[in-house]
Amino acid sequence: RYFQFCKLPGRVMGIRLLRFTSVVIIVLLLVAGALTALLPNIKDDKMPNLRREPKTQSQSALDSFTLIMQTYNRTDLLLKLLNHYQAIPHLHKVIVVWNNIGDKIPEEMWNSLGPHPVPVVFKVQTVNRMRNRLQNFPELETKAVLMMDDDTLVSAHDLAFAFSVWQQFPEHIVGFVPRKHISTPSGVYSYGSFELQNPAFGNGDQYSMVLIGAAFFHSGYLEDFQRQPEAVYALIDETQNCDDIAMNFLVAKHTGKPSGVFVKPVDIRNLEKDTNSGYSGMWHRAEHLLQRSYCVNKLVNIYDGMPLKYSNIMISQFGFPNYANHKNKM
Amino acid sequence: RYFQFCKLPGRVMGIRLLRFTSVVIIVLLLVAGALTALLPNIKDDKMPNLRREPKTQSQSALDSFTLIMQTYNRTDLLLKLLNHYQAIPHLHKVIVVWNNIGDKIPEEMWNSLGPHPVPVVFKVQTVNRMRNRLQNFPELETKAVLMMDDDTLVSAHDLAFAFSVWQQFPEHIVGFVPRKHISTPSGVYSYGSFELQNPAFGNGDQYSMVLIGAAFFHSGYLEDFQRQPEAVYALIDETQNCDDIAMNFLVAKHTGKPSGVFVKPVDIRNLEKDTNSGYSGMWHRAEHLLQRSYCVNKLVNIYDGMPLKYSNIMISQFGFPNYANHKNKM
After folding, report:
1. Mean of the per-residue pLDDT values for chain B?
2. Measuring CA to CA, how many Å separate A182 from each of A193, A208, B293?
3. Residues 34-73 in A contacting B (C-alpha not used; CB under 8 Å)
4. Rounded distance between C-alpha atoms, residue B159 and residue B178, angstroms
5. Which of A105, A129, A261, B33 has a 20 to 30 Å separation from B147 between CA atoms?
6. Is residue B222 helix, strand or coil?
7. Do B160 and A325 touch (CB under 8 A)?
């Protein structure tokens, strides 16, 4: 075909070709001009973390987090907390894990009180399980998850800071509640907090877990959680407890490092006394702590070893609430 | 030869072969048994950081640090501080940079008061320069350097903890004195501390430098410092100041991250009022802070850009001095 074209008189071809190439060049120049105009204005001394830039979809996934909050029998607290949490900076979406089996979700009321800063999804569950919150929800779009208990209030300042810390330690559980295990001469482990003896080295205390009821962690760990041995799910279902201990085992095993990074909260409150439901949370059960020690030992069997590692790093926000928190007497 | 051997009667060969293989098997079994007996006893729950193991030469280099302390006109403070610092855990050696030009080092007195926990080397200088302490001393064997001003007392607990933090952040300057630069609309930078405005994002304060007069850093940076532009040395010599700011520029440029990690000291003291010499340190000069702002701007020219980055991470030791430092009101 091309050769047939070439049979046309050369002069006519020449003019058509000239017109064609001229049009192409002009179009390219216009496109180039448009692109140049759209280039961002980069200055040398611009601070990192350009938080005021308009967010594209891909930036959102990296620069924001999804709140996952499981709720049972404390809808009044849930709604109170949602008013606060829905407005946290860098929040992408809220996933409410609805463990009130058979009860209608408050979706109508929620919508009637809109508009809301972010989408809130109510995931209706079929069985009231502690580990329901550890599903790999399809609605989850961000790399980061913020998991909160439905009776815990953490200030926006604390959350914004802890999120920035998570971004620097994305493979760790970055949160506000540190716990530890200790080893005893019999080889049996115990679970606890500051009241237990310090692990046997250095001075000060150590922690080996950060509880997920008030923490940021990578959404990839929810994927990993779906691939745990059946015995782990059985243990969590049997105790209706210990999902957070299991997550710490998972993360520690995955990284070979301490699972958590503890961020000292400035303002964290437990609101359970404020509920009208009279329901006061699993940790009030008499056997709660004993169960958790039991879980540690069972998980060591399941994982064929103790993967948890100790850390004594406590992170606070420099100069917040005020500079006195770092000004020294020198 | 082998084939010739084979020509011997088969039965005789068979017995010799049998004996030979029996001996070989017995020897192998004995060797295997000996090896098994020598295997270390590995327990699953053994804590990381096996600090009580006997140290080999290579372990020392990684698991200990060298104190470099420059001194001028405050020998009484130097000796007081050496009594303390020579006994810090994980200290490998002390290098005293002797800026008292023409004065004899107190070596005789030092030796007469031996034995000492670690070797102390006095490096006699020919010119009294601030940057003398940033030489790549041949006596330096460890990966980590602890640099201290000769009037600063930091507790052993703080130093042991900060060293463990440095081991987790070996490419950063891990220390006790945070400072920052700020940008002004004119493009001119200012140097300061909490008294300056907070950099323009988020809440709370930020720091962009950790001063080397009370900090751990990687000895490799002393090597790198020898390869800086001449203008950097000229600046430090001209001001007899700013060597620490230059080091922060070097580290920030090298890592592309904030140069320092601030560890909040529990007990840090400035002893300069305790000296008999009456000498009170460079930072009392009227122009000290203005000089440091000047240095920041000069270094930006020399480095053709501002490499310093902000951080608001403040690290403290979990549960030290007591658990109250993390116990929350929940």
Report:
1. 87
2. 10, 9, 50
3. 44-45, 47-49, 51
4. 16
5. A261
6. helix
7. no
The total number of residues shown for chain B amounts to 330
Q: How many CA atoms lie less than 13 Å away from A235 in the CB half-sphere?
A: 24
B22-78 per-position pLDDT tens digit: 887 888 888 777 766 665 544 444 444 444 444 444 457 779 999 999 999 999 999
CB atoms within 10 A of CB A193: 17
Give contacts of B 90-149 with A, CB under 8 A: none
Which CATH number is B65-315 given?
3.90.550.10
Residue contact A328–B198, C-beta within 8 A: no
Partner residue opposite A49 with nearest CB, options B198, B201, B270: B201
- Can you tell me the mean pLDDT for B156-185? 97
A87 phi, psi to nearest 5 deg: -110, 10
Q: How far apart are CA A76 and CA A82, in angstroms?
A: 10
Domain ranges of chain B: 65-315
Query: What's CA A144's distance to the chain center, in Å?
Result: 4
Average pLDDT over residues A237-265: 97
Tokens coding A181: 């295990």
Give the whole-angstrom CA distance, residue A323 versus residue B179: 12
Enumerate the H helices of B1-85 as residue ranges: 2-6, 10-38, 57-63, 75-85
What does the pLDDT look like over B73-114, one tens digit per residue? 999 999 999 999 999 999 999 999 999 999 999 999 999 999
In whole angstroms, give the CA distance from residue A249 to residue A306.
Answer: 8
Give catalytic status of residue A244 as yes or no: yes
